[in-house]
Amino acid sequence: MAIQMLLAPIRLFGRHVLDFIEKSGGMFMLLVQILLESKSIIRDRRLVLEQMELIGVRSLPLVLITSLFTGAVSSWQAAYQFEGFVSMSVLGGATSLAIFIELGPVLTALVLAGRVGASIAAELGTMKVTEQIDALESLAISPVRYLAMPRYWASITMLPILTIFSEFIALMGAFIVANQLLGVSTAMFFDSVQQFFRLRNVFGGLAKALAFGGTIAIVGCYVGFRTYGGAEGVGRSTIEAFVLSAALILVNDYILATIIF
Amino acid sequence: MIEIIDLHKSFNGNPVLRGVDLQIHKGEAHVIIGRSGCGKSVLLKHIIGLLRPDKGDVVVDGIALSRLKRRDMYRVRKKIGMLFQNSALFDSMTVEDNIALGVREHRMFPDAEVRRRVAELLEMVGLPGIQRMFPSELSGGMRKRVALARALMMEPEYVLYDEPTTGLDPIMADSINELMIRINEAMGVTSVVVTHDMASAYKVGDKMSMLEEGKVIFTGTPEEIQASDNPIIQQFIRGSQSPDLSESVLQKAR
């Protein structure tokens, strides 16, 4: 009895490890299949463009609003921490650096994980439980080519583009707060931005956005394709897709930060 | 011809098919009957290669499916149309796009020809002029007919029907039966119909097989099945739970 109680947490841990390995392997295999199916990307450009509109254009308002307030709060928080120690003349540079390297790519990715990753999982999950995926197969159409491949390429291209928009608007948010509420002049703010600006930081951030875009699409498609159990299963998949992609975005962020910067 | 040889399939350790042997000849309308959950739909999904067997094989026109690569499997699937139990229409597409998806993806016909054939098939299933409607705007019976038109669009040699009349009122169910008979005659296809609706089975089938406990326990004509003295078959086709059939009698019959 005592041994059983001692073994229970080990068993639980083992089950989670096995589950993690299975999911990682499954997502890697899906990525390989998507890359193999990508030879038809020119032929399937209409599907990719449709997804680019859904993933990119329709996410823009949410990304812009989130970015505006993120920039604003980062400027306010930085000023609070600088007070008495650091000159306000570096406020523009410090916030812009945080926006280009970290806030822009990561927050855009997290917003898209909620809006796009979860919706991919819900859409494909519904198709799975209502046999629409089987119907595609019965028509000799590969679901990976028809459904996952366009979502992957659309997500991987649109996330860096959305990140550029996000970074610009966040910088504007930071500037408005610095200028209107903290008394930093326009010239002082943008001189500091220019002084701290390194193209490498911007490209590093965009490289991260590229990886996050791939992560969101792969997780959404993988979880969607594995859905079972009707409406309840679709709900479970939607949550799982968001939680898994948000966690992977943050883990990847750390790994990529140590490599790039 | 479709040959099913010693087919076994389990899910999470629960055996569903335990050695199914069956032959479906060209031009036949073969009805597979059996209780809910006895593995009829699982069997149908093996015939079109959506599921891979644990043991045994399905052979379609001399091609064994279990070891086929995906590309070769798709070549076989183009010969087979399938009507799914809940129609499985693509929600985001119009009726025309649903029906035309397969031929458009495989670039089988020019677009004008595709539109003409969609109109023709909709006429055939009794729903002319609904090309622009979405599946959410259709009733259950209409969805089945559209799904049937989609299954027929690629000019299949075999059509698989998974519970074609389930969930329909008796009049609509009968009109689906009539449609299946008309399609068999007009297009010369081989039909495999999975159902537990005996009225439908007698009407459309020229051969019937009964699946019980994961095995085929009877194959014959509708007349032969009615004349069978197997208590399990009699119990099923009468649709009654006979109190005089003890478990030992049923076990012997299996």
A few lines on this structure:
Chain A is mostly helical and 261 residues long. Helices cover 85% and strands 0% of the residues of chain A. Chain A has nine helices and no strands.
Indicate the topology.
The complex is a heterodimer of chains A (261) and B (254).
Chain A: H1 2-37, H2 45-55, H3 60-82, H4 91-129, H5 132-138, H6 143-180, H7 186-196, H8 199-225, H9 230-260
Chain B: E1 2-11, E2 14-24, E3 29-33, H1 40-47, E4 55-60, E5 63-64, H2 70-77, E6 80-83, H3 95-105, H4 111-124, H5 140-153, E7 158-162, H6 170-187, E8 190-195, H7 198-204, E9 207-212, E10 215-220, H8 222-227, H9 231-238, H10 247-253
Parallel strand pairs in B: 3-8, 3-9, 6-7, 7-8
Antiparallel strand pairs in B: 1-2, 1-4, 4-5, 9-10
Helix pairs in contact in B: 3-4, 3-5, 4-5
Describe this entry's structure for a reader:
- The complex is a heterodimer of chains A (261) and B (254).
- Chain A is globular.
- Chain A is an all-alpha fold and 261 residues long.
- Chain A is built from 9 helices and no strands.
- In chain B, helix 3 crosses helix 4.
- Chain B has a single domain, classed as 3-Layer(aba) Sandwich (Rossmann fold), CATH 3.40.50.300.
- In chain B, a hairpin with a 2-residue loop joins strand 4 and strand 5.
- Chain B is α/β, with parallel strands linked by helices and 254 residues long.
- The longest helix of chain B is centred in the C-terminal third of the chain and has 18 residues.
- Chains A and B meet through helix 5 of A and helix 2, strand 6 and helix 3 of B.
